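for the writeup, i need someone to sanity check this before i put it in the appendix. the sequnce is what the collaborator sent (i think, or maybe the updated version? ugh). structure was predicted straight from it, no edits. if anything looks off just tell me and ill rerun, i have time this weekend
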Amino acid sequence: MVIVDKSGVHCLKVRCCDCPNAMSPDIQMFQHGFFPASFNRPKTVFIFQVLDDFLLDNLECGTSAMNYYSKLWQMTLSMFPHLVLDQYRELMRLKTMKWHGFGHRSDNPNAGDLALFCPACPQPGINVSLSGDESLDETPSWKYTRLFVMDGNFKAKHLHPIKPFDEVWLSDGLGFMVGKDSCNNHRVVNQANAARHKLESMGIRGVACARHGCFVPHSMVDFQKGERQAKHAI
């Protein structure tokens, strides 16, 4: 198991208790001060102290997650830091899950759950408290109506990655972008742009709040080889 501590990144053999009345492995790790990067079959854990140290560095020194993990590389093996296991993706995934309330429970987030909607727009139950005698059915429709705008950029071209096997989807459809399997291919447009084989996408489209300009979770999609629309209804 990979254990990330303030002193560096370590690989140690860990065996959880298998007694009949034993708790699940993730709960056992929480009890011992380890924060697992996954819950079903955890292979990477972060010590509570290293998460607190990263939070303090990020708050007071403006240290990014990449720079902080680079420091752990140097502390683990200063002469050959490139030989240290790269758990940066696990750190970013854990950070995102905690920010959106999924860091302490094993249920999986749904589409758009790892992104926040406009905090200024009225959202009953989130930033607006309804009185005891008030209900959404009796409230005037204009009071909590949301207005959206849609726009696209057809010049935001993106090349195919040089090493596609290194590309990892950290939040496939769980954030602002739709999932890689949620698009509808326009065959005619693709054939017209078949010569542009080096381009993975030729633009981007998104939906935003009309009042404050905040993007809507799970509403952004790439225009791949001309145009691909997402099967997504707001």
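The first helix runs from residue 25 to 31. The CA atoms of residues 58 and 64 lie 6 Å apart.
thx in advance!!
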